[in-house]
Amino acid sequence: MHQSGTLETWLRAAPISRPPLADVLNVFKQIAHGLHALHAAGVVHGALHFNNVFLNNGIPLLNDYGLLDEVAYFVSHLLITVVLCGLGQCG
Fold first, then answer.
1. Residues 6 or more apart from 65 whose CB is under 8 A from it?
2. What does the domain layout of the chain look like in residue ranges?
3. pLDDT digit string (tens) for 23-69?
4. Superfamily grouping for domain 4-64
5. Contact residues for 4 (Cβ-Cβ < 8 A; gap 6+)
6. Residue scoring higher pLDDT (83 or 43)
7. SS3 call for 47
8. Phi, psi values for residue 53, rounded to 5°
9. How would you classify residue 43: left for phi > 0, otherwise alpha for psi between -120 and 50, otherwise beta?
């Protein structure tokens, strides 16, 4: 299996090129292992769906744009605080 793109695209392929059941089960098993590892580390994905899972040569990669927005918001406010403090204007 050498598939790239989203999980949804892979699963909705034309009937002739649909992946074998064994490959589908393997990908879902890998996703479950990834989620287990996240949960064990205290991280909850919170937005898992077929378009948030990308395949890179058959390896599922979990993605979440909502989380990235929250991180970007936090980092931007942190940088503003650091700059203001550097100018002596924090308090």
1. 52
2. 4-64
3. 889 999 998 888 888 778 777 777 788 888 888 888 888 886 555 55
4. Transferase(Phosphotransferase) domain 1 (1.10.510.10)
5. 54, 55, 56, 57
6. 43
7. coil
8. -115, 120
9. beta
